[in-house]
Write a structure and sequence with these properties.
Blueprint: H1 3-18, E1 23-24, H2 25-31, H3 33-36, H4 41-57, E2 63-65, E3 76-78, H5 81-84, H6 93-105, H7 112-124, H8 148-157, E4 161-165, E5 174-186, E6 189-196, E7 201-206, E8 210-216, H9 231-242, E9 245-254, H10 259-264, E10 267-273, E11 276-288, H11 291-296, E12 302-306, H12 308-324, E13 328-329, E14 334-335, E15 346-351, E16 357-360
Antiparallel strand pairs: 1-3, 2-3, 4-5, 4-8, 5-6, 6-7, 9-11, 9-12, 10-11, 13-15, 14-15, 15-16
Helix pairs in contact: 6-7
Length: about 375
């Protein structure tokens, strides 16, 4: 909600709470500056009607009535204090403990300040929420992706958004215009569920694949949220489809590197040439649909031998990384080992300003020459 609108509503609530009598629209217009600045009577009427609807939607009891039995047409408004004030909050020990765990759960996320404020209010009211878990182990949530906070705000305000999204296996992001419904987490990743206006259907988006800023669009949500929408189930299904196994991949991995890959390998044999180890190993690993980006993180220590489409996807990511980081890259594609009889796999030669020249294989990462 914009700050000016929030301030106007707060002032309206204060005015109606402070008065023991019903306050007419004319008096409100004369008292509150935003209403006085309305250029026409129609503009004031529209603004006042919207503000009344906002207060009622927030659960604030807004009464209408008149102060005079002789002039019943002079309708006024007030907020009765007895109905407005909340009753004393009483929590059982287990309920307070749950609130404490929930607040600490968010302490590393964008809701940390709100969670801390809520705990402080409960403690000031004499509610003991507990400081440490009995087991010494507590859940934590982290939201490093910058898209989390603006998307959460858009969901609360029911506003459509626009952002650029890079699908798994693709290099160039595409613009999406989405009506956000909910954010959910699955195995360490955050996902957005919403209605994609460009596709005309509900879609799922992984937040760490959003490129650049999330832009709030004018207007409100047009597509109703389905009554049977199980966001968590849809997120789990989407994450599984994005990372399901689709066969195997054959990789050439530098010795003593890539331990995460070695743990997943079903076969691992040292590469020999003339009976002597070459310093490389050949691995067979399960292949999933989101593997290209992961392999690119290993830098020049990994080269994809099979399948060709995975090799091409990794090379495309490396070329995009080279271009995006301002690296000087040759347009010529070579084949590693073409001159020495070794296995063939495409490499990109990149020069990092101020550093050595490195051959980036299809499994190379965004940091040239990096060893994982």
């Amino acid at each position: 909600m914009p700050a000016t609108k929030t301030e106007r509503l707060v002032n309206l609530v204060i005015c109606l709470l402070a008065s023991k009598q019903y306050v007419t629209k004319e008096r409100l217009r004369a008292t509150l500056e935003p209403y006085r600045e309305c250029p026409t009577d129609d503009a004031f009427e529209r603004m006042f009607e919207r503000d009344k609807d906002e207060l009622r939607e927030m659960g604030i009891p807004l009464e209408t009535g008149t102060n005079s039995a002789l002039f019943e047409d002079e309708i006024g408004y007030r907020i009765p204090k007895d109905s407005y004030n909340l009753p004393e909050i009483r929590l059982e020990r287990d309920e307070a403990a749950v609130l404490g765990v929930a607040a600490r759960f968010w302490q590393q996320a964008v809701l940390a300040s709100d969670a801390s404020s809520a705990l402080l209010k409960l403690k000031s009211a004499g509610v003991e929420v507990g400081d440490v878990s009995q087991s010494g182990i507590e859940p934590r949530v982290r939201t490093e992706t910058v898209a989390f906070e603006p998307l959460l705000q858009a969901i609360c305000d029911r506003r459509p958004v626009a952002f650029h999204y890079r699908k798994s296996g693709e290099v160039d992001p595409a613009e999406r215009r989405v009506e956000p419904w909910a954010i959910d987490s699955w195995r360490g990743h955050w996902y957005l569920a919403g209605y994609d206006r460009g596709r005309g259907a509900d879609r799922m988006f992984r937040l760490d694949r959003i490129v650049g800023e999330v832009v709030l669009l004018p207007g409100h949500l047009l597509e109703p949220v389905p009554d049977d929408m199980d966001v968590h189930a849809k997120v789990a299904d989407f994450a599984w489809r994005q990372n399901r196994n689709v066969g195997t991949a054959t990789l050439r991995l530098r010795a003593d590197t890539g331990f995460l890959l070695r743990r997943r390998a079903t076969e691992c044999e040292p590469e020999l040439r003339d009976g002597e180890p070459t310093g490389w190993d050949v691995l067979t690993v399960p292949r999933n649909t989101g593997m290209a980006g992961w392999l690119a993180e290993f830098g020049p220590d990994v080269q994809v031998l099979e399948p060709p489409e995975l090799r091409a996807a990794v090379v495309a990511r490396l070329r995009a990384a080279v271009a995006g980081n301002g690296l000087a890259a040759s347009d010529e594609m070579t084949h590693h080992g073409a001159s020495d009889g070794g296995p063939q796999s495409a490499t990109v030669t990149a020069t990092v300003p101020g550093s050595r020249t490195a051959d980036i294989g299809p499994g190379a990462g965004q940091t040239t020459g990096a060893t994982r």
